[in-house]
Specification:
By secondary structure, the protein is mainly beta. It has two domains: 130 residues, Sandwich (Immunoglobulin-like); 129 residues, Immunoglobulin-like (Sandwich). It is 15% helix and 39% strand. It has four helices and 20 strands. Strands 2, 4, 5, 7, 9 and 10 form a six-stranded mixed beta sheet that branches. The longest helix has 19 residues. The radius of gyration is 31 Å and the shape is elongated. The N and C termini lie far apart (107 Å).
Length: 292
């Protein structure tokens, strides 16, 4: 029994000693500081994205509150251009909206955002090159919390366009005249990928464009018989960060005449799920050539 009492007394003593030890773990963690997220001064997006979230982070011990003020800072942009030999131009302030210019961090907050938004169709008329930007700087009610080299960010809003990768795609019928051919791929590509939003591209076969093909090329090909060529996936999705949309065509060669001089199937971009994109090559002519 005495041994048990000794252990109990020892346990109480150890617990009391532990309670007297000061927790210094936070001494190894940096104090709270405020900055824009990311290390790059220039952050790129596209007109068709229609928005960009400016993200401010509070990192460190996470024991402080903070009042952060954002500012559209053309003076800082001019200084950046002079220091780096760039020629960025500030977008006119009436071309976009800022969700909020003030961010209030509670003690538990580690990230707050302000959304920059614009009308893609309207902005497309202004953004004709890659140098248009929205320059944003930040300040804090506690200046000592600010990370000095991460208080300015340039949101580079760039134009993007889409078009078929090739204006014509040639197909030569097989000697065996198969009912279902191997899938024939045609693709449409973006000049600049959209980093944040997916784009759905819809295509269709447009017989009315056969005359345009004949006028442009002086080849008097006609449409093949109905049902000969089918567009297996009229819609294709370009994922964020990607550039390519692929469409599959199938050819039923048994519907072709025994003797023909060639056919053309115009494939047209019908619609895009995002606004603010120009279309550079809106038609791909799928040409079927006889095998003789």
């Amino acid at each position: 029994m005495k041994a048990i009492y000794r252990y109990i007394v020892l346990a109480f003593c150890l617990a009391a000693a532990a309670a007297c030890v000061k927790d210094n773990r936070l001494n190894f963690v940096e104090p709270d500081h405020i900055s824009f997220s990311g290390l790059d001064k220039v952050s790129q997006t596209t007109v068709c994205s229609a928005h960009y979230k400016v993200s401010v982070i509070k990192s460190g011990r996470n024991l402080s509150t903070a009042h952060v003020t954002l500012k559209i800072d053309n003076d800082a942009l001019q200084a950046y251009n002079e220091a780096n030999g760039t020629s960025f131009k500030a977008l006119p302030s009436d071309k976009y909206k800022v969700e909020t210019l003030t961010l209030d961090f509670a003690q538990s907050d580690s990230r707050l955002t302000s959304d920059l938004t614009w009308n893609p169709e309207e902005l497309l008329a202004t953004v004709t090159d890659d140098n248009w930007v929205i320059p944003v700087s930040l300040s804090c009610s506690e200046p000592g919390m600010v990370t000095s080299d991460r208080t300015f960010v340039i949101v580079n809003v760039r134009p993007s366009s889409i078009g078929f990768s090739a204006k014509t795609m040639e197909y030569t019928e097989s000697k065996e005249r198969s009912e279902v051919s191997s899938p024939v791929k045609i693709s449409a590509s973006l000049t600049k990928s959209n980093p944040r939003d997916e784009l759905v591209v819809e295509c269709e076969i447009d017989e009315s464009l056969v005359t345009r093909f004949q006028d442009e090329t002086s080849y008097y090909y006609n449409m093949p018989p109905e049902g000969c060529v089918s567009l297996k996936n009229p819609k294709a999705t370009i994922a964020p960060g990607d550039k390519l949309a692929e469409f599959n065509l199938s050819v039923n060669e048994t519907l072709l005449s025994e003797i023909h001089g060639g056919h053309v199937v115009p494939i047209k971009i019908k619609s895009l799920s995002l606004e603010g994109l120009s279309i550079t090559e809106d038609v791909c002519y799928f040409i079927i050539k006889p095998n003789f």
